[in-house]
Amino acid sequence: GDLYKVIADIATLFYEQIVGVESMTLDVTATDGSAERLTGEFMLVAAGISGHRFYGGGKAVLPGADNLCAISRLGLIGKIRLKSLFYRGDHVHEPNVSMRSFAALCVEYGRRIPMQVDGETAWLEPANFPLRIERVIDSIPVLSRA
User: Fold this and answer.
1) For 133, phi and psi rounded to 5 degrees?
2) How many domains does the chain have?
3) What is the pTM of this model?
């Protein structure tokens, strides 16, 4: 209920202190076959089977056609400001937010990191990376070690 929402909101503000963040590499293969590498200290990476997705109580994380959102590290004030933009989907215009459409995504990371799939949290360990995610329309999603 409301208590969970308050705790979750506070935890997101201090995510880096709780979990830690270091450089991550995202190799993005677009639906047209073009490739791009994004590297940075991302505090959030959200990937969906498609765009137009809402998460966690109506946050428009993927509000348009893009199915990947990567948000670079921000200070506390920036996080508070960005959080309010999420509900309207207006975060996509911010300079520290990268929005892309992908057919395949390869994630390289050297730390333990939480991953949420359909509201359930699982921990990915360094041994799980690189992690390849492929968008396969009208099928069952499968995550595999690259």
Assistant:
1) -120, 125
2) 1
3) 0.85
